[in-house]
Write a structure and sequence with these properties.
single chain, alpha/beta, Amidase signature (AS) enzymes, eleven-stranded mixed β-sheet, two-stranded antiparallel sheet, about 15% strand, globular
Length: about 475
């Protein structure tokens, strides 16, 4: 076997890389080498990785190349590099969760989602940064510091899946695993101008299942809708270790047409404050769906205004498990998390149980609203564009020690109701920062949500961040695997 030289493989899609590997036109070794070289350039600035498993990735790439040359069956992601948010276990690597107080011991085994990625041939490159214990959507933590937004250094990439979105936007590999308890996949996708998909709750097994009121989903962050779907296909399906997981799996829709769909457009869910530039950008994008044959109507859903009180009643209680044991421990924690814990210190089981009852009624109302005749809902993904590090809200919003949820009123409702939702880029602010449009569907309408996302991006392609510090090379210069 010989290989030709050169090529920027790091920014190719997962679908393209997997096909090139299957055709023996590209070696997994060259893919990983190219990505590692790219990370060597951009990661010192981005600070998006907790750990880069350089040797593990190289070893896996050599094994993947050998499997190609043996001619056996290959998985859907054979030779494709993937990163894992540092809340999911990767065998041999620690799971730090953005906290100085976490256990630095290596994990004994992969989580279910990670194991399924490996079984499909994916190569785990490393673990990405997240906010401390995933409590906030601002992109920094006490353990690794601030992760930078590739669109502008000094601004947040969002969170809690901070590093995943930053690497996706910077062209550092095609697939990045995130988790989403109130928007933690979709919000960083919004800030970084990429695709963030939260499937229906239980589509991807979450092991160990978090004790946070059944809010957290596993989902991909990518630059391409088809890549995000492929990643979910690989990870989806019931597992006995997660009693909330379901066997439906995920299958991409064969058609990308959205002609005839009835789509609701809510600029504010009946209550949310939205920065004017965000609102304008999303409003300009909405007619695209009509041009594609859908019927779009502006709505103000009756359930929307109940969201703010409900999420705040539920958000802090599960975090109380991370209450510091003493003052010394508290000093090692994110100050915003400490403030949140103090505010919720007096919460009782009766309070939480009453809030959960309201949450069940809220989810039922969302489901009934869709069943009345709406196929999809579109909204802004968030109320603000990326803002500077060191704060939970932008300077022009009312200050609060911890309540970042004030600009995330569009994301958490669909954690509460368990339906699928995706953020995709729809334009830029006048300051040149990405704006995300969110597409939401009823439970199990995942393929329909992604069908609409793909149709939109086909009609309105989005130019990725110009952050990579070396020019991309044309596909014709990628490495070739040859038999001799």
């Amino acid at each position: 076997m010989t290989t030709a030289s050169g090529g920027d493989l790091a920014s190719l899609s997962a679908c393209a890389l997997a096909e090139l590997v299957r055709q023996r036109r590209v070696s997994p070794v060259d893919i990983v080498d190219d990505l590692l070289a790219h990370l060597d350039v951009v990661e010192p600035t981005l600070n998006a990785l907790v750990v880069l498993d350089r040797e593990g990735a190289k070893s896996a790439a050599r094994a993947a190349e050998a499997a190609v040359m043996r001619g056996g069956a290959l998985g859907a992601l054979h030779g494709v590099p993937v990163t894992i948010k540092d809340i999911q276990a990767v065998a041999g690597l620690p799971t730090r969760r953005g906290s100085r107080l976490s256990d630095p011991s290596p994990a004994a085994a992969d989580s279910v989602a990670v194991a399924r990625l490996r079984a499909a041939g994916a190569i785990i490159v490393g673990k990405t940064t997240m906010t401390e214990q995933g409590w906030t959507a601002a992109g920094e933590n006490p353990l690794t510091g601030a992760t930078q937004n590739p669109w502008r250094i000094g601004l947040t990439p969002g969170g809690s899946s901070s590093g995943a979105a930053a690497l996706a936007a910077a062209g550092c590999g095609p697939l990045h695993l995130g988790t989403d308890g109130a928007g933690s996949v979709r919000l960083p996708a919004h800030f970084c101008g990429v695709v963030g998909f939260k499937p229906t709750f239980g589509t991807v097994p979450y092991v160990p299942t978090p004790s946070n009121g059944l809010l957290s989903h596993i989902g991909p962050i990518a630059r391409d809708v088809a890549d995000a779907e492929l990643m979910v296909e690989v990870m989806a399906g019931a597992d006995p270790l997660d009693l909330t997981s379901h066997p439906a799996g995920y299958r991409r829709a064969p058609s990308r047409s959205i002609a005839g769909l009835r789509i609701a457009f809510s600029p504010d869910l009946g209550h949310a404050r939205v920065d004017p530039e965000i609102a304008c950008c999303v409003k300009r994008a909405a007619p695209t769906f009509e041009a594609l044959g859908a019927k779009v109507e502006v709505v103000s859903p009756s359930w929307g205004p109940r969201g703010p009180e409900l999420i705040r009643a539920l958000w802090g209680a599960p975090l109380l498990a991370f209450t510091p044991a003493d003052a010394a421990s508290e000093k090692q924690m994110d100050a915003g998390l400490v403030a949140c814990l103090r505010d919720f210190a007096g919460v009782t089981w009766r309070d939480v149980n009453a809030a959960q009852a309201r949450r069940l009624a809220y989810a039922a109302d969302v489901g009934h609203w869709f069943a009345e005749g709406w196929d999809l809902l579109i909204t802004p993904s968030a109320s603000v564009a990326a803002f500077p590090h060191g704060r939970q809200v932008p300077d022009h919003w009312p200050h609060h020690a911890w309540d970042w949820l004030s600009w995330a009123e569009f994301s958490y409702p669909f954690n509460l109701s368990h339906g699928p939702a995706v953020s995709l880029p729809c334009g830029l602010t006048s300051d040149g920062l990405p704006v995300g449009l969110q597409i939401v569907g009823p439970r199990f309408a995942d393929a329909l949500v992604m069908r609409a996302a793909a149709a939109f991006l086909d009609a309105k392609p989005f130019q990725a961040a110009a952050f990579p510090l070396r020019p991309p090379h044309p596909i014709g210069r990628t490495s070739i695997v040859q038999n001799h």
